[in-house]
Design goal:
This protein is mostly helical. It is 49% helix and 8% strand. The mean pLDDT is 86.
């Protein structure tokens, strides 16, 4: 039989076991209590931030000129809009709300979440809108100048964006990053801009529009011919500046295609390139155009064979289609009639005879 000493040791061990078990239960209950408290606290914070369960009423709030976020938080708490002013202060500090909130008298709903509360105190200035009509045949600089004159953006910013900004369009990938690279790509149309629009966003509107105008059929046609998009756009720009109307665009296109395919007549001899070189504003007579023929430039189609390096204006969709789908002719020449439309000829002799006649218009 166990002696008294052994019984005493056994009793103490049981007592320690019972005490340890009690401590474990108490610790568990403590953790559960803390967790529950934190959960309740967290839920109250989430409810306050997101306005998950708030009464709906209109509350008048007055924000003074020298307000602080802490003062505003206390006022909103007193009005019952928020329950945790310290949390709203933390939210405002994190979101830099003090820079956005404008002093004034407001009426807001008590059911707004923190983000909506801040937005309620922000006065969004009215943004003026400007409608800009860009007609076909305008050069890049003419288009940018027109936009600047309408007060949409400064000309310096527009030129810098056109020369230096990158735009994620496949048709621009092969163009060198240099001044004038967007010549021909600012699609002529009517646009509505905000007066404080960024230069890049303005150009993006034009380029998006141009991209949308290129249908799948047109893209398939591009893949089937020997010219890339920049070359077709160049042809279209020549057509745009030469044609008297859409009805003769395909015939002018046929002259260009025929000359480019010729072995002996690859100089296009198009006066529109001479005008581009000297500037439209400097042309007032046939003599001015003739002077442009003497300028040594790859854009001078009287001196250099083939197409100029790039477009000379922004062409219309009719001109682009004409460049892609020329008439099937044997025309190599055309000249302006006194009725301001063009006549087309197969041979140089026919062309020369018309030029000497009274039906020819010199300018």
């Amino acid at each position: 039989m166990p002696d008294k000493k052994e019984k005493k040791i056994e009793f103490e061990q049981k007592q320690r076991a019972n005490t340890g078990c009690l401590r474990g239960v108490l610790y568990f209950l403590f953790i559960c209590g803390v967790s529950l408290g934190l959960a309740v606290f967290g839920w109250n914070c989430v409810n306050d931030v997101l306005a998950l369960n708030k009464p709906d009423s209109d509350v008048a709030v007055s924000i003074s000129e020298d307000f602080t976020i802490r003062e505003l938080s206390r006022e909103l708490a007193e009005l019952g809009v928020i329950n945790q002013p310290w949390l709203f202060t933390l939210f405002c500090n994190y979101s830099k709300a003090e820079e956005k909130i404008e002093p004034g008298d407001y009426v807001i709903s008590s059911r707004l979440d923190y983000n909506a509360i801040v937005k309620s105190f922000v006065i969004i200035p009215e943004r003026g809108e400007v409608t800009v009509r860009v007609t076909e045949g305008k050069t890049l600089m003419e288009t940018l100048t027109l936009i600047a004159e309408q007060g949409v953006s400064s000309l310096d910013n527009l030129v810098r964006a056109a020369d230096e900004e990158e735009f994620n369009f496949s048709f621009l990938e092969d163009l060198p990053m240099e001044p004038g690279r967007l010549e021909g790509y600012l699609y002529p149309d009517t646009y509505v801009f905000f007066t404080d629009a960024g230069a890049r966003s303005i150009l993006l509107r034009f380029l998006n529009n141009f991209n949308l105008k290129l249908t799948r059929t047109m893209r398939e046609r591009l893949e089937a011919i020997d010219y890339d998009l920049n070359e077709i756009l160049t042809i279209a720009s020549l057509i745009q500046m030469e044609a008297a109307g859409a009805g003769e665009m395909k015939d002018i296109s046929s002259v260009i295609w025929n000359r480019l395919s010729s072995n002996s007549m690859r100089k296009l001899e198009i006066d529109a390139t001479s005008v581009y070189l000297i500037g439209k504003e400097n042309v007032s007579s046939a003599a001015d155009v003739m002077a442009g023929r003497e300028i040594d430039s790859p854009y001078n189609t009287f001196l250099y064979e083939g197409l100029p390096p790039g477009p000379i204006c922004s062409p219309s969709i009719d001109a682009i289609r004409a460049a892609l789908y020329p008439s099937t002719t044997k025309y190599y020449y055309y000249a302006l009639h006194v009725d301001r439309t063009h006549r087309f000829f197969n041979t140089e002799s026919e062309f020369a005879r018309f030029i000497r006649s009274s039906d020819s218009a010199s300018f």
